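Hi R.,

Here's the chain you asked about this morning:
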Amino acid sequence: FARVNSVAPNSPSSLVLEKDDLILQFGTVTKTDPTISGNNLLPEIGTLVVQAAASNDSIEIHLLRQQQTNIVSLTPQPWHGRGLLGCHIVNYEE
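And here is the predicted structure, written out as tokens:
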């Protein structure tokens, strides 16, 4: 439902995400979540990231990279760049 558009060097995301990774699940957020209306799930991801950063929790991310499914863990946190992840995630439709 989402694609990693860019990853900043030395950011929290730089060790676990790569440009063009396709996100299948981001924590509890999935494309088929019946509690979320509409196709834009990015605000839900943003909310989850802020909550995880506040409690120093990691987020489990299911992604597709080079036709292989991977599960990675990412801990949002302040760093010298913008945001809490250091990556840009965009909507993705097949």
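One quick note: Residues 65 and 94 are 15 Å apart (CA to CA).

Cheers,
M.
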